[in-house]
Amino acid sequence: MGFGEGTKWVTEPDTYVCKLTKETQEVAKEELREDESRRNTALEQMRDYIMRNERIENCRLDAQFLLRFLRVKKFSVPMSQEAVERYLLLRQVYHPAFNNLDINEPNMDELLSLGYIFAAPGRDANGRRVIINRPGVFDPYKYTNVDMCKIHGIAYETLMEDEENQVRGFSHFADGAGVGFPHITLFTPREAVRIVKNGERTIPMRHKEVVGINVPKKLQYVLDFGMSLVSDKIKKRVTLYENLEEAISKGMDTSMLPKEYGGKMPMKEMIELWRKEVMDARPTLLRNDKMKVRINMYSEKAREGAVSALKQGLGCGDLNSGDSTIHGLSGSFRKLEVD
Prior knowledge:
alpha/beta, 16 helices, 7 strands, 47% helix, 9% strand, Similar to TTPAL: Alpha-tocopherol transfer protein-like (Pongo abelii), CRAL/TRIO_N_dom
């Protein structure tokens, strides 16, 4: 494959037909500056950038994919162009964790059945999907850090395919019960920093609210470290409660949560509905593996996912075509044996 004319892209340019509800179109206009004229112009500029960029070997060119970047960057085309390229590089640098996002793999199916991460059906009062994460059910002696990244990738990629989600954003609910030191040491501090920094900067999701309960007091220092890594914008959207009872007493809306957390639908039913959703998205997620960049055309720091490279951008100054060695965390993902 090559860039420019003659390349067979993962998906070809299509004619966009807006399927957003009228209410969501208003949100998109007010919060993201999106209207038909700006959208059409931005999509044309995004496609031209990708097709002319010799660093990008293959990519999706359909509007649904490109709009996730334009929307998260509020239709700043230069920022969206950099974001899509960073996303492609991230997938390649962290290859074991962000490729072959197959829910049919035994470990992925098991984590889904356990309810490690899933999205509740329907939408909350703000039109958002609610993502539920229960890290304590993740067995750090059985599963690897790659498994953890992949099951998150399956959830996020599935949800990002929906345009309503791209505009409305997401609410998160996490239950820290059962989390211990072995969970924390699945990643080294350096890996944690790079994953969090690259994730927030690169994964095109609008995180609107984060609620957490049952954070183990003995791991408060870990939470403090994690909070130090995220942007001030995200910090302001995080609310933590000692337990479910405190959260409910202080007005947390439980209507979208499983029955076990004060909602109406049993968790098992939610998980089965989510299973159907991710199964429907499976062909798209596997097809995304065809997207690639020419890894040797990026600086060593960019290939390693270094935070300094995030700040520097992906301009020509980052090119280092004389060094074709692939660096990055892909070589360091491993199963840790923790006493």
